[in-house]
Design goal:
Elements (H helix, E strand, L loop, with lengths): L25 H32 L5 E10 L8 E10 L4 E5 L3 E6 L2 E8 L5 E3 L3 E11 L3 H13 L5 E15 L2 E2 L4 E11 L12 E2 L1 E3 L2
Antiparallel strand pairs: 1-2, 1-11, 2-7, 3-6, 3-8, 4-5, 4-8, 8-9, 8-10, 10-12
Length: about 220
């Protein structure tokens, strides 16, 4: 067999066959850059528009206040019967709220003496910039004579008040113009109030804003 001859170059390396690199395509590279720039610009503009819309609407939570509260029976040591009214304010210009049924509870000394009293009897719709009163009356506290006597002792003490926590629970969803939120969110409201020896809401707690948590 005859040996295969190779041709040496002036540098001492054997000459071989090299595959030519593909030619560059500058028009394809420019097109890719343009598409990327257009996508990033559109994404940036969409973010700016959403931010501006949020600032324009900026939904606020509903506002709950205890506007009236009386606890009959405290001076005599029980039984104690509660009556009163809460107000719900929707402060938004463009956002409406849907509430499921609202339930009232009242806490005294860390325990519930009223539990899940139905306030509305049905779901509640609240348009923008409206206030809805929620009244209740004749709600007897549980716990028997001991609770009434404890309240009477608190009223007769130096502080001269009976501290209570009025709580409301429900579910809520919002609607903006023609867009509505399909998902319900739990709603929890807590109002720290106090009544005096006569069983009436003390002036410093009237129209006091409640804590609201639903997001």
């Amino acid at each position: 067999m005859q040996p295969t001859s190779t041709t040496a170059t002036s540098t001492g390396f054997a000459a071989g066959h090299f595959r030519r690199l593909p030619a560059e395509r500058p028009h394809l590279r420019r097109c890719t850059k343009l598409l990327c720039s257009a996508f990033l610009t559109a994404l940036f503009l969409a973010g700016v528009i959403l931010f501006v819309v949020y600032l324009a609407v900026r939904p606020h939570r509903p506002r709950f206040h205890v506007t009236a509260l009386s606890a009959a029976g405290i001076p005599s040591g029980g039984p104690v019967v509660l009556s009163g009214e809460l107000s719900v304010r929707n402060p938004n210009h463009d956002v409406a709220y849907f509430f499921d049924r609202l339930y009232l509870s009242v806490e005294y000394r860390g325990g519930d003496v009223v539990k899940d009293r139905d306030l509305t009897g049905a779901p509640l719709y609240q348009p923008p910039k409206t206030t809805t009163p929620l009244a209740f009356q004749g709600v007897e506290v549980t716990g028997g004579a001991d609770v009434g006597q404890d309240m009477a002792r608190d009223a007769a003490a130096s502080s001269g008040k009976v501290a209570l926590t009025v709580k409301v629970r429900s579910r809520i969803k919002a609607r903006l113009a023609f867009w509505g939120n399909r998902h319900w969110h739990p709603l929890h409201v807590s109002c720290d109030v106090a009544v005096g020896p006569d069983g009436q809401l003390l002036p410093e707690y009237q129209q006091k804003r409640c804590r609201t948590d639903f997001l």
